[in-house]
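Hello,

I think I submitted the guanosine-5'-triphosphate job twice by accident. Can you confirm which output corresponds to this input? Input:
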Amino acid sequence: MTPPRASQIPVVVLAGFLGSGKTTLLNHLLRNREGTRIGVIVNDFGAIEIDAMTVSGQVGSTVSLGNGCLCCAVDASELDAFLETLTRPSARLDVIVIEASGLAEPQELVRMLLASDNPHVLYGGLVEVVDAAEFGRVRERHPEIDRHLAVADLVVLNKTDRIGAAEHKELRETVTALSGPAAVVSVTHGRIDPALLFDPALRPDREEKTRQLTFEDLLRESERERDGGGHAGHLHAAYESVDFTSDVPLDPRRFIAFLDSRPDGLYRIKGFADFGAGDPANRYALHAVGRFLRFVPQPWAGSERRLTQLVMIGAGLDAEALRHALAACRADPAPGAPAPGPADRPDAGDAERAMWGVLRYVQEAAPVSGEEASPGA
Ligand SMILES: Nc1nc2c(ncn2[C@@H]2O[C@H](COP(=O)(O)OP(=O)(O)OP(=O)(O)O)[C@@H](O)[C@H]2O)c(=O)[nH]1
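Support: Only one job matched these inputs. Its output is below.
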């Protein structure tokens, strides 16, 4: 039997004004993808499978950006057609990035993605790249940048090498105020940590140890040399990752209240939640990016240890406060009980009602590869 692949693929929208550094960031992701297969849709209306691009060594020049505007020129059905191709199991992609034209209204693209009826598409966030050195001038010419920042899930303040510390501080304050709850990371040359956008692939066919040096490795090597031999240490400087594990089930109402008021800067949450008596048969896979939240119930395996395991990724997170807030979401044991057990659980009706808040965000799992229509069509 073929091992099931992820049934839903995150689709990330990469936006930003002309010259802000979108292509640079995309190339950086391609060079540091660690086996993750990335599909890219660019606004010359082509869908490019990235493995072919990296192998050819033409990453930068192959992504020729047309003059068109993706969200105007590609109507919903065309975008759906590209996504349909790229989300097919045969493409074996782990993440798809749509690079929006410098002039595109990114919120249109986000709306199209959220409205897509392709069951394999999972919204992966809106990343807005900002040219730190040009922000003031761009804002004068294009006041709509405020609107773009307001809807972004992650703001990448790029080209910070071109401004001084005081200007940087002031700019961060302005951008943070405009972007509300979005995480803001400062970088040079688009070097965000790829883990902000996608997880390293856990691919069964990945030849991890024995593989040959690839072109991608060479590109990365030469980039390091250019940076003065330092390893890509700044990669990890820009974000924090906080994990939380509990063997006491979560109280669904408290957990939803936590999610509804999650702190600014928290860009992604992923993992699994155990709601105990709320749904003893399933764990709930959780995917949150920016303000977007989705649960997918998945049956517990018989022997599986019932745990809640969450990873939170963002910028400027207060790890202690987050863990504390999550600990407070745990279901209370019954008074006097030494440890929670089946007898302590609330009555079934109340437990079910408590799940209503969670069920608002539930999407049934998409079929896995074996159930798909033939891909070659
Ligand atoms: N100094 C400096 N230059 C950068 C940085 N990031 C990108 N650049 C340069 O900025 C220019 C524009 O970068 P691109 O990645 O092409 O920007 P883009 O947003 O894709 O541009 P469009 O396709 O025109 O919208 C290129 O010459 C990059 O080499 C940075 O952090 N610092």
